[in-house]
Q: What sequence folds into this?
């Protein structure tokens, strides 16, 4: 048997293998501040440099040639000290110097004069005027990675006071994401000047991160308040040391009020973290559930109607996904401008492709096996092997790449450390829209009436003039089409490969077993329940044991409800 | 009163013989032929001689005989009791794993790391054997596990499934999920069964070097004996009164219940026995192919077993054996020459057999005989 059942079936595992950035619920870069401060070993060095910076910052003197002379030195520590001076100066001259350092256009002449090279000309860095000294033969000043990143953040620090709001915002965000202690005076200066309320609050938080070690208890208290307002559990590591005891029994934080505030803040942050985890689990569960729902819906319809478990159902998912891939490729080649709109075509195409395949299979093969459910099971398995191999020889055994339209990438950050990706939200919405349409078709159309009648009592329906054999074909095609839509959805969050369907099929069977057949509500509850249960167990036991636990739960569950949660009542449902 | 005495007592159908006289004769002939020819061809006749039985051919046939035992087991539940299990590969693999544990332990210090522990445990930096590995270096205990573990698992699962009268495709799906979940479990390194790679690199069995021609011939004959034994035991079961009730369950379970039978015990026995048989097949399989890994438990493998039974003819006991030989023979031929087309061929078999050969090859043969 060459069909390799994939190791992982949870959609999270698929996502992590795919190159798309959709699986990230919780990771957001910790601000480097947090990491730096949390790291106790570097604290002493840090405090010392802060004092120095305070001193320099408060002076805020214009830069002199002496201040920047260190840049030309071979020793990187001397260069670093010069950089401190420049950052602390916080004026246009400093900005000019930092920009030049960033662009690596700063040079030093043989006489030790520091100049900025601008094309053919040379500029005096302190005045900004063309230089009197000739810069010919000057050596450029080299920086190491550490200094380069300090130049970068220093520049952002200075730009935080730029008159342009967009520049300021970008700079603040950059500092917030990736900062260093040397920027503290710049943050304070920017905070004093800032008028925009949004940026002001962001600067407040930024400041709070630096102010936790401030000698003034009132400032520390203020900082803790601001941090806890940020509701970011990842900042816990910053506050946590404050309530710890030193080896000699005294607290790290001497002031009792600050300590109490820190404890309260930690408590609220712990709650925030718990909340984020809960919401994250819920979202992951619903996300998995909505995929299972799309896969299980068609299965439940055909099973309820003809009593046939369609082992090739997963391959309808695959056909839908490949149809999406083809449409996407066509758009990429012929209408790249309209690429964002390809789902508009891909959705109906994936439905049609799968439905057509289903219709043909029903007419050509399955029709002759009705009344022999176990043999139907086998021959649908054969169909599944056949389709997989067909796709493998046509498209190759490798996965193909389906890109998200741009509006589907990215995500919404509902909590600081919880990003809900748009593509998953879109799939949930899509799944429920499909269920809604299926409900309308089943309950409000003539075909739906026939399907329901045939499901409940085939002979009686036939006696009343329903062409049950036609109903079978249409219902089978309809179920296959819904699976095709599921495949279209799946292509947005994971890899598309020939054995795509195999990873979801067993779970969708389980959803059908759990929910019972013949009623939409059963499938919805079954799929969502299965998704949620899996995701709730997963953090404790891991994906594999969660799967086994779910199976055991289902076996125990059918002891009580052998026909699933929402069983049809009556004598006609003996299967 | 006189009326009552005139009623003839209901005549029970006469008991079917286990095998008809010609069938016994054929069977004994085959047993003698294999028992004499195979050792002769593999051990006595030198390798240059075209009559020599190569190790490859013997391993291949031995392997297929193990599959045939599994097919026989599946046929007992599907063909006679109406339970289509899509998880028999699990019992097969479990039997194999139990045997594999013994084989791993009997490698002794000859492994890559020259350690008392199996290589994969050294690799995972485990310091001592997990509790379930204790005692597996003794063959009788390992052989007991081969029977007990698949049997116990099948009994527990069957008890819950049959008690709530889960049947038909529902049951098939759940057995499939069972083998799938166990496969995932065995893929984990932490489970302690070698993870992805499973067990391989065996050195000896019962003190004999495992790749020696003599050992292989012995294993082959043992497998053949097991196959014949299973066949006869299955025949005994299906021709007994017990077997008639089992077939009645297959045909109409509800009517049987109205007659006062409780199907649970019958189903449970047949199901558990079938699992044990499958486990024995797996245990014989592992020393011959020299490897066991979790992919043996993949749902696809179990479903493939069903096609062996279907193509041979379910509801007959010779059918599954023929089916296992036809499909696996074709597989080893096709995967060697036209590997891309094997899945097409297999898929087509799955589609064609239920459509045009509902009673399999044996049914076709009977039809031809009747017509002529």
A:
């Amino acid at each position: 048997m060459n069909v390799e059942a994939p190791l992982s079936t949870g959609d999270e595992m698929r996502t992590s293998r795919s190159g798309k950035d959709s699986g990230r619920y919780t990771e957001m870069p910790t601000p480097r501040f947090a990491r730096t401060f949390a790291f106790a070993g570097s604290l002493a060095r840090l405090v010392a440099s802060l004092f120095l910076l305070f001193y320099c910052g408060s002076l805020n003197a214009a830069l002199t040639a002496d201040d920047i002379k260190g840049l030309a030195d071979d020793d990187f520590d001397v260069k670093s000290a010069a950089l401190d001076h420049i950052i602390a100066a916080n004026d246009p001259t400093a900005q000019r110097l930092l920009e030049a350092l960033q662009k690596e256009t700063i040079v030093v002449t043989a006489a030790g004069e520091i100049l900025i090279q601008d094309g053919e000309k040379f500029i005096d860095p302190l005045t900004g005027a063309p230089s009197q000294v000739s810069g010919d033969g000057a050596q450029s000043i080299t920086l190491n990675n550490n200094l380069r990143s300090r130049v970068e953040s220093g520049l952002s620090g200075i730009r935080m006071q730029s008159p342009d709001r967009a520049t300021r915002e970008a700079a603040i965000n950059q500092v917030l994401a990736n900062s260093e202690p040397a920027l503290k005076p710049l943050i304070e200066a920017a905070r004093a000047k800032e008028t925009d309320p949004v940026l002001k609050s962001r600067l407040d938080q930024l400041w709070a991160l630096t102010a936790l070690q401030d000698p003034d208890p009132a400032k520390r208290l203020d900082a803790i308040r601001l941090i806890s307002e940020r509701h970011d559990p990842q900042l816990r590591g910053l506050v946590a040391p404050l309530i710890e005891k030193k080896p000699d029994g005294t607290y790290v934080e001497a002031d009792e009020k600050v300590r109490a505030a820190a404890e309260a803040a930690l408590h609220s942050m712990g709650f925030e973290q718990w909340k984020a985890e809960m919401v994250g689990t819920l979202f992951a569960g619903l996300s998995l559930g909505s995929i299972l729902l799309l896969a299980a819906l068609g299965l439940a319809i055909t099973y309820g109607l003809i009593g046939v478990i369609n082992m090739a159902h997963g391959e309808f998912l695959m056909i839908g996904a490949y149809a999406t891939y083809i449409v996407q490729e066509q758009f990429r080649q012929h209408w790249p401008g309209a690429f964002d709109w390809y789902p508009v075509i891909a959705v109906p195409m994936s439905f049609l492709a799968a439905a057509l395949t289903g219709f043909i299979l029903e007419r050509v093969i399955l029709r002759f096996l009705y009344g022999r459910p176990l043999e139907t099971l086998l021959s649908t398995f054969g169909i599944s092997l056949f389709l997989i191999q067909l796709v493998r020889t046509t498209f190759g055994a490798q996965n193909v790449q389906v890109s998200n339209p741009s509006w589907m990438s990215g995500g919404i950050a509902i909590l600081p450390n919880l990003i809900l990706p748009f593509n998953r939200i879109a799939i949930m919405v899509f799944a429920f829209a499909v269920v809604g349409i299926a409900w309308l078709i089943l309950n409000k159309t003539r075909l739906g009436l026939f399907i329901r009648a045939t499901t409940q009592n085939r002979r009686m329906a036939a006696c009343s003039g329903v062409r049950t054999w036609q109903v079978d074909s249409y219902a089978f095609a309809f179920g296959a089409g819904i699976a095709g839509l599921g495949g279209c959805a799946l292509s947005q969050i994971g890899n598309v490969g020939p054995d795509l369907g195999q990873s979801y099929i067993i779970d969708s069977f389980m959803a059908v077993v759990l929910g019972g057949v013949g009623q939409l509500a059963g499938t919805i509850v079954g799929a969502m329940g299965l998704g949620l249960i899996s995701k709730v167990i997963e953090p404790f036991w891991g994906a594999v044991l969660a799967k086994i636990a779910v199976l055991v739960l289902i076996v125990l569950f059918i002891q009580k409800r052998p026909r699933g949660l929402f069983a049809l009542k009556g004598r006609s449902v003996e299967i | 009163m006189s009326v009552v005495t005139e009623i003839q007592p209901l005549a029970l159908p006469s008991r079917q013989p286990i095998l008809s006289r010609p069938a016994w004769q054929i069977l004994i002939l085959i047993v003698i032929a294999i028992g004499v020819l195979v050792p002769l061809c593999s051990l006595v006749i030198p390798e240059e001689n075209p009559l020599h039985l190569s190790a490859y051919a013997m391993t291949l046939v031995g392997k297929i005989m193990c599959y045939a035992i599994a097919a026989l087991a599946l046929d007992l539940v599907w063909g006679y009791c109406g339970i289509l299990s899509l998880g028999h590969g699990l019992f097969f693999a479990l039997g194999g794993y139990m045997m594999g544990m013994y084989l791993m332990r009997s490698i002794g210090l000859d492994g890559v790391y020259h350690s008392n522990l199996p290589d994969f445990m050294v690799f995972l930096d485990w310091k001592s054997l997990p509790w379930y590995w204790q005692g597996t270096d003794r063959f009788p205990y390992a052989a007991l596990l081969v029977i007990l573990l698949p049997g116990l698992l099948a009994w527990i699962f069957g008890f819950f499934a049959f008690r709530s009268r889960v049947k038909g495709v529902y049951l098939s799906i759940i057995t499939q999920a069972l083998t799938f979940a166990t496969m995932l479990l065995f893929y984990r390194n932490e489970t302690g069964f070698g993870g992805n790679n499973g067990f391989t690199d065996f050195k000896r069995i019962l003190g004999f070097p495992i790749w020696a021609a003599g050992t292989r011939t012995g294993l082959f004959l043992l497998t053949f004996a097991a196959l014949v034994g299973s066949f006869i035991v299955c025949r005994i079961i299906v021709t007994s009164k017990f077997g008639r009730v089992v077939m009645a369950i297959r045909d109409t379970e509800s009517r049987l219940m109205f007659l006062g039978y409780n199907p649970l015990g019958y189903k449970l026995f047949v199901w558990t026995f079938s699992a044990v048989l499958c486990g024995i097949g797996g245990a014989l399989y592992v020393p011959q192919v020299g490897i066991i890994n979790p992919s043996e438990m993949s749902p696809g493998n179990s479903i493939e077993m069903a096609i062996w039974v279907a193509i041979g003819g379910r509801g007959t006991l010779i059918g599954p054996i023929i089916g296992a030989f036809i499909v696996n023979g074709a597989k080893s031929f096709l995967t060697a020459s036209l590997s891309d087309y094997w899945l097409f061929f297999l898929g087509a078999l799955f589609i064609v057999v239920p459509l045009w050969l509902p009673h399999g090859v044996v049914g076709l043969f009977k039809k031809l005989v009747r017509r002529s």
